[in-house]
Amino acid sequence: MADELDLLRAADPVPADHPRLGDGPLDRRAERLLADLRREPPARGRVRWPHVGPGLRARPAWAMLAAVVTAVTLTLVVGGTATTPALAAPRPLVVRADATPVSLDELARRARADAAAGGESLRKGTHVQSWSLAMSEDKAPVTLPEERIVRWKPDGSHSELVVATDPTHPGRPVLRDDADGPRLVEDGHVVSRRTYPRSWSDAPPQSPPPRDATRLRAWLQEAAAEPDGLGTGELLDAVELLLDNWTLGARESAALAELLAGTEGLRPAGRVTDRLGRPGLAYTYEERGLAHLLIMDPRTGAVLGRETTFTRPDPAYGVQAGDVMAYSAWMR
Question: What angle do CA 170, 173, 175 make, to 5 degrees?
Fold first, then answer.
C-alpha cells in the first residue's frame, strides 16, 4: 500500500522544482490562514496542532493551498487522539522466506573464514541510523529518525554528532520532538554536536570487546549490568549497547556470531533488505509482546541492524500489532 505521506506530497499543485517558483516565506494572508488551521476548535474535543519549525517554508502567491496541504500532512503525522497510529512510523521490514535458511552456526563459520582472511579491524566509536517511537498516554506516537556519529581521537577525546535525517526519504523534512512538541526540521538538521575531553576506562562498554565468544558474553553481561546473566532479550539489548560504542572488526564479529549461534530462541527467518538497502539474513526472537529482528551480513556475519516491533496492540499508547517500536542500522 502506498505511503499516505507520499500521496499527500504528490498532491502538491506546484512542485518544488517548478522553474518559475522558488522557496520563500509565507505572506500575511497565508500566515493568517495557517494560524486559523492550527487553532483549536472551541466546540470539539482537543486537537493538538504541531509547532511548525523554521525548516518548513511555503512559497508565495500560492502559499494558501500549500499551507493547507502542509497542515493536513502534519495533522496526520502528529495530531489526533492517543489511539491514532503514527503515519510517520516506518513499516516493518519484509522478510523473504528462504527454502534453505542459513543457520547461525553456518553464519558463524563464514564469519570465522572472513576473519581468517583479514577483514575489517576494530574501531572505537559508531555510525548508526536509528528510528525510535516516542509514546505517551496523551499524545499520538511519533517516530523520530536520526543519525549519530561518534569518533574517538588517539588522545582519548571524542566527538558526537547527531542529526535529524531519514535515509528512506532523503531531502524531505524530518520530524523532531523537543520542548515545544513535535515539529518538522530540514533534512540534516543538527540536533546536537558535542566534544568530550580525554577519558579512559577499563570497564565495558568502554574497554575493547573480546575476540572469543565466552569472554564476549561476560563482557556483554558486565556492560549491561546484569549480574544474574543474560536471557536472549537482554543479550540482544547488550549487543545493541556494544554496537553503539564500537565498530566491530572481523574477529570481534566472528566472536559475536558464534555467541549468537548458541543463543536459545533466536532462529533464522529468511532474507531481507535493510533500510539502507543492504542485503542481509534475518533472525527472529519473540518475548513479552515484542518481536526482535536481527539483521546480519550474509558473508561476514557482522550485525547490520535490529528491528523491534509490537506483536500485540496497546491502546493506551496508540500502537497496533506490527508497529515498529525501534530500529537501528549500524555502518562502518
Answer: 115
Going by C-beta distance under 8 Å and a sequence separation of 6 or more, which residues neighbour residue 186? 55, 173, 174
Q: Is 70:55 a contact under the CB 8 Å cutoff?
A: no
Give the distance from CA 132 to its chain's centroid: 5
In this structure, are residues 247 and 215 in contact, taking their beta carbons and an 8 Å threshold?
A: no
How far apart, in whole angstroms, are the C-alpha atoms of residue 251 and residue 272? 24
Phi and psi at 43, nearest 5°, equal -95, 0
Supply the pTM of this predicted model.
0.73
pLDDT in tens, the chain (332 residues): 445 555 555 555 555 544 444 445 555 555 555 555 554 443 333 223 233 233 333 323 333 223 333 333 333 343 343 333 333 567 899 999 988 999 999 999 999 999 999 989 999 999 999 998 887 777 777 788 999 999 999 999 999 999 999 888 888 898 887 777 778 899 999 999 999 999 888 899 999 999 999 999 999 999 999 988 899 999 999 999 999 999 999 999 999 999 999 999 999 999 999 999 999 999 999 998 999 999 999 999 999 999 999 999 988 888 889 999 999 999 98
